[in-house]
C-alpha cells in the first residue's frame, strides 16, 4: 500500500467516525462512503443498499447514479450478490461472495440481475455486509469492469470501510435515541411542574384540596379530549376554572 493510499484511508476512517453532529445527513454520509470506496478500492461502482427493520433492502447511494445504474441498483435489491450478502445466503458455486465472477455465475440464481450487469459492462461483483455484531443494516455493493476480481487486500479494505460506516450509523442512531429520551424526560419534568402549579391555583380558586383540584383538572381534560398539560397551562395563564361537577 502506498503512503498516499495509507493517508487517504486514515482520513476516510476519521470521516466515517464523524457522525456525532447535530446536522448529521445520512445520505451525504453514505454518498461519501461510496466516493471513498471508488478512490481506495479498485472498483467502477460502489453503492449502499439499506434495509431498515421490517423493511426490504433498498438502494440509497449513490444518490444520482444515472438511469442505467439506477435500474441495476433497483434490481440488486431484489436479486444478486447485495441481497444474498444481506440475507447471509451462500454465494454461487460455493465461491467467495466478495468476488463473484459475473461471467461465470449461474443464470438460474440471478436471471434478471446477471444479464443487466453484463450489459452494463461489469465483470465482477463484490457484496460486503454493513454489520455490527449480529445486526445487519444492509450491504455495500462493489462492481468491477476489469478481468480480475478484487484482491484480498481490497476486499479487506472494503469490509473495513463498511464496518466503520455501520459503527458510525449505529452510534448516530443511539445518540439520536438518547437525545429523544432526554427531550421526553425534560418535557415530563416541565409538565409535572406545570400541573402542580395548576393544582395549587385551582385548589385556591375552588376552595378545595389539591387532590380534588387535580381530579377536577383531569376530568376536564378527559371530557374535552385534551392533554392535561394544556388544561393546566390555561388554568395558570388564562384563568380557566373547570366546573367541579365535570369530575368523573
Please characterize this protein's 3D structure.
The longest helix is centred in the C-terminal third of the chain and has 55 residues, at 152-206. The chain is 54% helix and 12% strand. The chain has helices spanning 3-17, 26-40, 67-76, 81-87, 113-119, 152-206, 210-223, 228-237, and strands at 45-50, 58-61, 100-101, 124-132, 135-144. The model has no long low-confidence stretch (mean pLDDT 81). It has 248 residues and is an alpha+beta fold.
Short description:
The chain is of the alpha+beta class and 248 residues long. The protein contains eight helices and five strands, in the order ααββααβαββααα. It has two domains: 3-177, GAF domain (Beta-Lactamase), CATH 3.30.450; 188-246, Arc Repressor Mutant, subunit A (Orthogonal Bundle).
The overall pLDDT average reads: 81
Count of alpha/pi helices: 8
Share of residues in helices? 40-55%
Low-pLDDT ranges? none
Largest sheet: 5 strands, antiparallel
Question: Termini separation (Å)?
Answer: 76 Å
The count of β-strands is 5
Helical/strand content category: alpha+beta
What is the level-2 CATH architecture name of the largest domain?
2-Layer Sandwich
Strand order of the largest sheet: 2-1-5-4-3
Question: Features of this protein?
Answer:
single chain; 248 residues; alpha+beta; Beta-Lactamase; Arc Repressor Mutant, subunit A; 2 domains; five-stranded antiparallel beta sheet; 8 helices; 54% helix; 12% strand
Helix-strand blueprint:
Blueprint (H helix, E strand, L loop, with lengths): L2 H15 L8 H15 L4 E6 L7 E4 L5 H10 L4 H7 L12 E2 L11 H7 L4 E9 L2 E10 L7 H55 L3 H14 L4 H10 L11
